[in-house]
Amino acid sequence: MAPGGQAGGSGSPGSPREGLRDWIRSACRFAADRSDFRRNLIVNLGLFAAGVWVARNLTDIDLMAPQPVA
């Protein structure tokens, strides 16, 4: 990251994209850091919660039911 990257780009057209790119980069670094127990715990709990949410919300779908012909 360049020093002062957020402060200097307030009027340039690419500043929101650069902010999004920095946010995605920091999120990937946060998720990929293997040496930090606290980060790994947070990431694993988040993935577990997302899996529970998906499992609870997809229980209404019967995948073996015949599909309507369009």
Keywords:
single chain; 70 residues; mainly alpha; Translocase of outer mitochondrial membrane 6; TOMM6
**Secondary-structure element order, as H and E?**
HHH
Query: Low-confidence parts, pLDDT < 50 over ≥5 residues?
Result: 4-9
Mean pLDDT: 76
Overall outline: flat
The number of helical elements comes to: 3
Helix-and-strand structural type: mainly alpha
How much of the polypeptide forms β-strand, as a percent range? under 5%
Over the alpha carbons, how many angstroms does the gyration radius reach?
A: 20 Å
Organism: Chelydra serpentina (Snapping turtle)
Protein name: Translocase of outer mitochondrial membrane 6
Pfam families: TOM6p
Please characterize this protein's 3D structure.
The protein has helices spanning 5-8, 15-32, 37-57. The longest helix is centred in the last third of the chain and has 21 residues, at 37-57. It is built from 3 helices and no strands. By secondary structure, the protein is mainly α. This is Translocase of outer mitochondrial membrane 6. It holds the Pfam family TOM6p. InterPro entries: TOMM6.
Give a brief description.
This protein has about 70 residues and is mainly alpha-helical. It contains 3 helices and no strands.
Set down the secondary structure blueprint.
Elements: H1 5-8, H2 15-32, H3 37-57
